[in-house]
């Protein structure tokens, strides 16, 4: 069941924002002619897949509770404008109307992010990060995502370590070239 859920999440992450993602076609395949690649850089993973001559690469981080429940998933791919595009998946039980406040090392990153929808795998937030935000993520230590609990309205913070983010970003960029 978990692998089916993971496949659904990945499909949902790739399809809606596909136009902005780094995808290349032709002879620029993965190292060694592989059809997929997965690497870990501290807290971040880099993944690439090729299908029908097109290559899709992303960097991601998933956090899972001790009971196996996913707490969050963030997946980002290089966008054509030099930024990053992707999706954030958060659990149920949140006040969706308040959105997600993002901070890098306690400095706010723009306006709260808006939820798109909730599906059986969690609640989805589309991400479009400009070059300036990417530079802050590369130099930062922690991305704080703050939401409100639907039960109490109290803030709930998800801490995303940025250790390895710069290396994972560099590797993703190298793989899409």
TrEMBL record:
Residues 1-21 form the signal peptide. Keywords: Signal. Transmembrane segments: none annotated. InterPro entries: IalB_sf, Invasion_prot_B. Pfam families: IalB. It comes from the Bacteria. This is Invasion protein IalB, involved in pathogenesis. It comes from Tistlia consotensis USBA 355.
